[in-house]
Design a protein that fits this description.
Order of helices and strands: HEEEHEEHEHHHHEHEHEEHHHHEEHHH
Number of strands: 12
Shape: elongated
Distance between the termini: 97 Å
Largest sheet: 6 strands, mixed
Radius of gyration: 31 Å
């Protein structure tokens, strides 16, 4: 397999993923792909289920249904939902950061990055105390680990503070340090949960530069959750949008950015503003696009999430509990309904015109028929005569 064909393969395939917490369906029949060597963004309003998807991928949750497949460069494939939690980073080479910073604040920057390499160091010591006695294999592994840590500190523009406590760093620098620590594990898939949260524009630009450097020079694929649209639109190759645990859009940043369902769901357009959004984007084009399938260049050809039905589906439970999502809760669903109504309204004048034309032709044809002789003489015959007689 050559390099170009490898880059076109999907490193992550999520198929029919569902995650239920009792009566709450956090993720409903979700399918999408993340391509190797690309940055894939998972976006959506708060409560859409983005972090739940991350937790399923990284082993914190075991999904109720579905399959999560990771394809490594060496040809090995792993079903992540079947792997023990600790084997997902070790064997499947998946690394993750969290919404809240989880550094060892009392340790130096260099020590934080060395901790990420403890598996390699433990193996070099034979899982014993040989490292304390200067075992040659351990000294070599230790030197390599320090060199790798300094390499990522340089990439994160933090090498001059390598011996400072991590807790003394500014917030944006701590975010970059977390990513550098994750990269020290040698991942093929890096999952970042809102890395730009709380960053100012300068810090966001530094974060973008680091992520693009990782993408371009390491071959590591990135899956990120983000609310900062400036970050998403600048660095993402592929965007997947969730609402109420269902996928409502899937494609390149530009197509997602102009999708009225995304505008309504993610940006919080009110009911009365949906029609305005449709008009601004281009009513006729939007109506046609609303019935289109996913972006074939990125997402699955026939993603089950588009066929999963409305989010108002009722969830039944054995104990008689009944939980529903209120009708009209989905902003994206409201856009679809408005589009259907607009299409129906546009079709009705044509139907009325056709009906009038048919009626006109019918009225012109009636005078050509001969009047019955009974009517001409003022007499009524047949059943009609019987009816009139009955009324007397």
């Amino acid at each position: 397999m050559n390099a170009s064909s490898s880059m076109n393969n999907a490193i992550l395939q999520v198929e029919h993923l569902s995650m239920k917490f009792g009566g709450l369906v956090a993720i409903g029949d979700l399918s999408f792909q993340a391509k190797r060597g690309e940055i894939t963004a998972l976006i959506g309003p708060n409560g859409a289920g983005k972090t739940t998807v991350f937790n399923c991928i990284t082993g914190f949750y075991k999904p109720s249904e579905g399959m999560i497949t990771l394809n490594l460069r060496d040809g090995n494939n792993f079903l992540l939902e079947r792997l023990p939690n600790h084997e997902i980073p070790a064997r499947a080479k998946v690394a993750r950061t969290f919404q809240n910073i989880r550094l060892f604040s009392g340790m130096t920057l260099l020590e934080n990055l060395l901790v990420a390499q403890h598996n390699k160091l433990m193996k070099a010591s034979g899982y014993t105390i040989l490292g304390l006695f200067g075992y040659s294999g351990y000294r070599k592994a230790s030197a390599e680990s320090i060199e790798l840590a300094r390499h990522w500190l340089e990439k994160a523009n933090l090498v001059d503070r390598a011996d400072d406590p991590a807790g003394d760093l500014p917030y944006g620098a701590q975010r970059r340090l977390e990513i550098a620590r994750a990269m020290c594990t040698g991942p093929e898939l890096l999952c970042l949960d809102e890395p730009a949260a709380g960053l100012n524009p300068k810090e966001s630009a530094a974060l973008n530069a680091l992520l693009m450097d990782i993408k371009d020079n390491t071959g590591t694929s990135i899956l990120l959750i983000e609310h900062d649209m400036s970050v998403v639109m600048q660095i993402s190759d592929h965007v997947v949008v969730l609402e109420y645990g269902r996928k409502i859009s899937d494609g390149d940043p530009q197509s997602v950015r102009t999708d009225p369902r995304v505008i309504a769901a993610y940006l919080g357009v009110d009911d009365e503003e949906v029609e305005t959004v449709l008009t601004e984007v281009g009513d006729e084009d939007v109506i046609e696009q609303l019935d289109a399938g996913p972006d074939s260049a990125h997402g699955p050809g026939t993603s089950s999430s588009y066929l999963a039905g409305p989010v108002t589906d009722t969830i039944g439970h054995s104990e008689g509990e009944r939980v529903t999502v209120s009708k009209g809760a989905s902003r994206a669903g409201q856009v679809d309904e408005r589009a259907k109504a607009a299409a129906s309204k546009a079709a009705s004048p044509a139907a009325k015109s056709a009906a009038k034309s048919s009626a006109a032709k019918s009225s012109k044809a009636k005078p050509a028929a001969k009047a019955p002789s009974g009517r001409a003489s003022g007499k009524t015959t047949g059943p009609a005569a019987g009816k009139r007689g009955g009324r007397k």
